[in-house]
UniProtKB/TrEMBL annotation:
It is a multi-pass membrane protein. InterPro entries: ABC_transp_permease. One of its GO terms (cellular component) is plasma membrane. Keywords: Cell inner membrane, Cell membrane, Membrane, Transmembrane, Transmembrane helix, Transport. GO terms for molecular function: transmembrane transporter activity. The chain crosses the membrane at residues 12-30, 42-61, 97-126, 169-188, 194-211, 223-241, 253-270, 277-298, 304-321. It is found in: Cell membrane. This is Inner-membrane translocator.
Amino acid sequence: MPREKRIDAHLAVLAAITLGVFFVLGILLQQQFFSLRNFQSMAYQFPEFGCFALAMMIAMISGGIDLSVIANANLSGIVAAFILTKMITSEMAASGAILLIAIAILAALIVALLCGLVNGMLIAYVGIPAILATLGTMTFYTGIGMAITQGVGVVGFPEQFLAIGSGKIGMLPIPLVIFVLAAIMVSLTLNKTVFGQSVYLFGANPIATLFSGIHNTSVTLKAYLLSGLLAGCSAIIMISRVNSAKVGYGDTYLLQAILVAVLGGVNPYGGRGKVSGVLMGIIILQSLQNAFTLFMFTPYAKRLIWGLMLLLVMIIHYINLRYQERAKIRAMVSQI
């Protein structure tokens, strides 16, 4: 079966699951769930882990994984936080404060890109497997953040910066606008550029891409740079929403990002995945997260459920792959 048809079938199943989740939660929670206030709250909450899910998707499509996205975001956020708290004073003019806020955001994105660059170089040039390379850099970035802050949160950002995490553009929350722009950028990059097609081909068959003239090292490097940039976007949203930066923020997002990516149809082995699938995965996960909060589940119970969901999705994905392989073999045998 062609790749696009398989993905479209998966999207149809995801759409049905999304509607089913909304239907069940609507029955159980009624107005608590289907209220404008609840949906606005969800729109402020999911963009930061949504950007993490997009970053994870890029890495997984390329045939790897990025376990350092949370540590990258925390380190980037800490760098921005120091600029915001050490260089901006209450006596400063508004124009000067806005300029320094822009510099802080730019610094966070640059640090995030540098972290992505380190990941890409370790994987592409040194040849370390992605899971080991990013596991090591996760610890390394966390250690740098801990050394800078001594484990203490950096708090007290200017009101103009806090508007990024809590403000609106018309009726739309600013974090949602940032996430939508990031999702559009990733979708266009994957579907409309040579690099995007190279990522899919490299993830599906790196040996074939090597002999087809595609520079595998360049593709890997760019994929992890993009993953790092998305982690930087998450950092800006996250620290502006909670008004602080600290090592350890968003640790639970790592499991959720992997779960959303796999649930959204991204092949853990590489070569397949679409932004639209990840978006539906985010909606499903955030709806369940919101329901768990309304049902007053403990954080430990939530992590247990996310872990079980990831195992279940991976098992279903593995069974589906085995079924497709056997179907291909039967088709080849029937043609002999």
